[in-house]
Write a structure and sequence with these properties.
With 517 residues, this protein is an alpha/beta fold. Helix content is 30%, strand content 20%. It has a nine-stranded mixed β-sheet with strand order 14-13-15-16-12-17-18-19-20, sandwiched between helices. The protein has a five-stranded mixed β-sheet with strand order 6-5-7-8-9, sandwiched between helices. Helix 9 crosses helix 10.
Length: 517
């Protein structure tokens, strides 16, 4: 027959500084059984005792009545709507649950049968495990939903191997992002020698050695289980100020500013001069700021095409008019300011191949501007079932991560789809959304540039700028190209467009604006 609390049970609880009134209120009693005197722990659901668990007082062992319902101990606290704003504390033992309750935390439950030994865990199918049927019952009843537990869970499990296994299971079942964990305080010196360990292992021991205030402080220090990648500003490493470099154009410099860590895309119809303009732009930045460039130019021969263009640009004259001294100076500058990513005749360059070469260019050669020209010359290996749009999005994300990780600017020259001539016989100006492969080019680039030629006029448009006040606002400049020097000169800037920073500029209509002074 169950007594309320026998003298022996009262001494047992008193030695652990557990409150008698709290124990009686929770229905804890004692009973003489065939196995000796035991503490009786009633499991209550909706106000009715559905199971009794026994804890030996002479020897630490547990048993239970046959046929009882396996449920969480003190689970009715989850049905109390007045407690919804408080976190749910889950302990590994019933007496740890009492320790939290008497420290002023009313919304606390205990797992019914302690932690599962590692050998009994089914990590692959926890939800169907009999060991966690009690938790699934609570979940099905809606008692663990975000609406009822907005403050999350504190997992007050034991600080041992089995407790670690229980904590891992509970974080998987309750979702790690909603869970906090405890670090128990160090044991007093005398207790540490007796326990043969430095730290206390549960709330019961914390109550015994530090009282209710110790339990309250321990639970108050519960910390969220960290989810990698979500940090406060003070936790983030300090970054150097992102330096923005002038590109050497007075008017167009307001629409395009070179910054390390960015990803830009250049497009234009074949023969429009996009690669030629980019060559001038890269050379200006290299000459003005010492930024070394790496060219992955799959349609140009470095020894012939690049050298000819770079020599003329550096000397500011035709090759036929250059002196030996000018050739020597130009070649020395080319060796200093440029690197070339080339593949063997029997190689098909693909993205992973290119990334390895880009990394070498940055780390071993100090390159800070990587130019990939053109994109369609790469071998694009799509994963099984991956669409062209999905592949392009993944590739751009990879290049953007590279730019940020290596503090380099990555530029891709990408052709538009085949443009049909209009009724007037002219090819219209492409938009970033016309680039072959995907709208990801327009959506994901920090800077999107369109180069379009109409007769002897070249229009250079920044159609997309993600940060207007830092790397330039969208806008268009008419330019003239000098074949002898391989350089562009500005004619005039056309009227600025008022637009959303993430929306590309519409195609040019050819209307002139005011002349720049």
């Amino acid at each position: 027959m169950t007594e309320q609390i026998s003298a022996k049970a009262e001494a047992f609880l008193g030695a652990r500084r557990l409150d008698m009134e709290a124990a009686v209120r929770l229905g804890i009693g004692s009973e003489h059984t065939a196995s000796g005197e035991a503490l009786v722990l009633p499991f209550v659901r909706n106000g009715k005792v559905v199971r009794r668990k026994f804890r030996g007082l002479d020897e630490k062992k547990f048993w239970q009545d046959k046929g009882g319902v396996r449920c969480a101990w003190n689970e009715d606290c989850l049905r109390d709507d007045s407690l919804i704003g408080q976190p749910v504390i889950i302990t590994e033992g019933e007496l740890d649950c009492v320790a939290a309750l008497q420290a002023g935390f009313p919304r606390v439950i205990s797992v019914p049968d302690g932690a599962p030994p590692p050998g009994e865990r089914d990590e692959h199918d926890l939800r169907s495990s009999d060991k966690y049927a009690w938790l699934m019952d609570l979940e099905r009843e809606g008692l663990l939903s975000k609406d009822r537990v907005p403050a999350g869970f504190i997992l007050a499990v034991d600080g041992d191997e089995n407790g670690a296994a229980l904590q891992q299971d509970l974080t998987m079942l309750l979702h790690k992002v909603r869970c906090k964990f405890l670090v128990y305080p160090k044991a007093p010196k005398a207790a540490a020698a007796r326990l043969e360990r430095e730290r206390l292992k549960d709330l019961g021991e914390v109550l015994e050695h530090y009282g209710e205030r110790g339990v309250k402080d321990c639970l108050g220090r519960a910390d969220w289980i960290r989810i990698e990648g979500v940090l406060s500003m003070s936790d983030l490493p300090r970054l150097p100020a992102a330096k923005v470099y002038d590109i050497g154009f007075a008017a167009y410099g307001e629409h395009f500013k070179f910054r390390l860590g960015d990803f830009s895309v250049f497009t234009g119809t074949p023969g429009s001069g996009k690669s030629t303009f980019l060559n001038d732009l890269v050379c200006r930045v290299a000459a003005r700021h010492g930024i070394r460039a790496a060219w992955a130019s799959f349609e140009q021969n470095p020894q012939r095409d690049h050298r000819r263009t770079l020599r003329s640009w550096h000397a500011d004259r035709r090759l036929a008019d250059m002196t030996r001294e000018e050739f020597a100076k130009a070649d020395a500058w080319i060796d200093d300011a440029h690197r070339f990513i080339v593949c063997k005749d029997d190689e098909d360059p693909h993205l992973d191949w290119l990334l390895e070469k880009m990394e070498a260019a940055v780390i071993q050669h100090g390159c800070r501007w990587i130019i990939i020209d053109p994109w369609n010359e790469l071998e694009h290996d799509r994963r099984g079932g991956e669409s062209e749009t999905e592949y392009t999005g993944r590739a751009i994300r990879t290049l953007k991560r590279f730019a940020r990780a290596f503090d380099a600017h990555v530029t891709v020259v990408a052709h538009p789809t085949k443009m049909r001539r209009g009724e007037d016989g002219k090819i219209p100006t492409p938009t970033l959304y016309d680039i072959s492969g995907s709208a990801n080019w327009a959506n994901k680039a920090e800077l999107g540039v369109i180069v379009h030629r109409a007769g002897d006029k070249t229009f250079v448009t920044t159609a997309k700028s993600r940060y207007h006040d830092i790397i330039g606002r969208p806008g268009m400049v008419e330019m003239a190209y000098c074949h002898d020097t391989r350089k562009f000169s500005e004619i005039e800037r056309l009227p600025d467009a008022v637009m959303d920073p993430d929306q590309p500029l519409p195609p040019a209509r050819g209307r002139r604006g005011r002349q720049e002074p």
